[in-house]
Amino acid sequence: MKKRTIIVIGASTGGLDALKKLIGALPPDLAASVFVVWHIAPSGRGIVPDVLGRVTTIPVTNAYNGQLIQTNHIYIAPPDHHLLLEDGYVRVSRGPKENRFRPAIDPLFRSAAYIYGNQVIGVVLTGALDDGTAGLWTIKQRGGLALVQDPAEAEVPSMPESAIREVAVDYVLPIARLATTLTRLVGEDVPEAAPVSPADDKRTAIEIGIAAEAKALDTPIFEFGQLSPFTCPECHGVLTVLKEGTLSRFRCHTGHAYSADTLLASLTEAVEDRLYDAIRGMAESVMLMNHIGDHYAEANQPRQAAFYFQRAKEAEQRIDLVRRVALSQQTLSQENIDQPEPVADSPPAS
Q1: Which of 6, 89, 204, 224 has the fewest Cβ atoms surrounding its Cβ within 10 A?
Q2: Is residue 10 domain-shared with residue 159, that is, in the same domain?
Q3: How confident is the model over 232-255, as pLDDT tens digits?
Q4: How big, in percent rounded to 5, are the helix, strand and coil portions of the chain?
Q5: pTM of whole model > 0.90?
Q6: d(CA 138, CA 117)
C-alpha cells in the first residue's frame, strides 16, 4: 500500500525562521521528499539551501528543471521561478505570477496534488494574504492532508488563518508539533482517494500547464468560470472567476492568477498609484501655466499673465484635495478589513 511520501510547504513573511525550526526538527532519515516555496524577491539570492542545510543533514538544494525526485531530499523553489511536480521529476518555470509572486505556493501544491494525489501532505506556514489556500484546497480534494501552523505562533498569521477559514484542514499546530506530526504521517498507509470529476481534473491540468509556461491564450480556462467586471492589475486583461468550494479565484487570459484577497490588495494599491499619477500630471500643468504666465508678464501682457497665474492657483487647490485623498488611501485585505476601528476613549464623567 502507498505511503505519504510527498511533503509540500509554503511560507512567506517570517517564513525563513519557521522553515529553519520545522526542517531542523525533522528526522535525518525522513522517508519523504520535501518541496518548499518561500516568497522571495526575483533579485534575491538563492540562500535558502545554505540556511536550511545548517539545521539538517537531509540534502537541501535549489531545484532545477528535470531534476529527479529522491526520497530524503529537500527541494527549494529558486528565486523568480515556480516549482512544479511531474511524475518522478520537478519542473522549474517562469510562468505567470500567481498571487503576485513567482515562486508562488498554489502552483506547487496544485501540481503535487494532481500528480501524487493522496500521497501529498501540504503545510502552510506564516505569511501575509492567502497564497497557498487554493492549493491546499486541491490537496484536500484529491485525498491529501492539510497541516497549518498555529496562527497564534505565526509571525504573520494571515496565510494560516486563510487556510483554516477556507479549507477543512486536518491539523493546526505549532512548529514543534508540526514536525513530529509530519514524521508520524509519513509512515502511515494511504487510504483510497475519492475520484475527481473530469471537469475539475481538466481545469487543474490547464492551470498547471499555465504555470509551466503554456500559453494561457491557447487554453480553454474561460470554459471553467465566468467573465468578471475586473481587470488584471498586471496586464489589464479581463479576469475570469473560478470557483472551488467556497473559494473564488481570478485568472486573466495571459495567465496571472489572484485570490479575492490578493486582488483586493492589488486593486487598492493601484488606486493610490493612480492618485499620485494624477497629482504628478496636475503639478506639471501648474508649472507649465506659471511658465506661460511668466512669458506673458515679460511680454508686458498682464491680463493674459494674470489669467494663467489664476488657473495655476486653482489647480494647486485641486492638487491639495487629491493629495488628501491619496494620504487617506489604504491598501485593503481581509486582514485589515476585519480589524475593528480604534474607538476613542470616552471622556471622564463630570
Answers
A1: 89
A2: yes
A3: 999 999 999 999 988 999 999 899
A4: 45, 20, 35
A5: no
A6: 9
Tell me the C-alpha distance between 290 and 341, whole Å.
43
Residue 172 lies in a domain: yes
Q: Which of 131, 158, 256, 266 is catalytic?
A: 131
Rg of the Cα atoms in the chain: 25
The residue range of the domain holding 167 is 6-186
Tell me the C-alpha distance between 315 and 203, whole Å.
52
131 is catalytic: yes
> Which of 164, 186, 208 is a domain's end point?
186
Q: Which of these is catalytic: 12, 33, 93, 158?
A: 12
What average pLDDT does this structure show over 192-205? 90
Q: Is 294 a catalytic residue?
A: no
Answer yes or no: do 114 and 28 share one domain.
Answer: yes
Domain match, 171 and 79 both: yes
Strands across the sheet with 225-231, in order?
225-231, 238-244, 247-252, 257-259
DSSP class of residue 230 equals E
Q: Which of these is catalytic: 33, 39, 158, 162?
A: 39
- Mean pLDDT score of the chain, rounded to an integer? 92
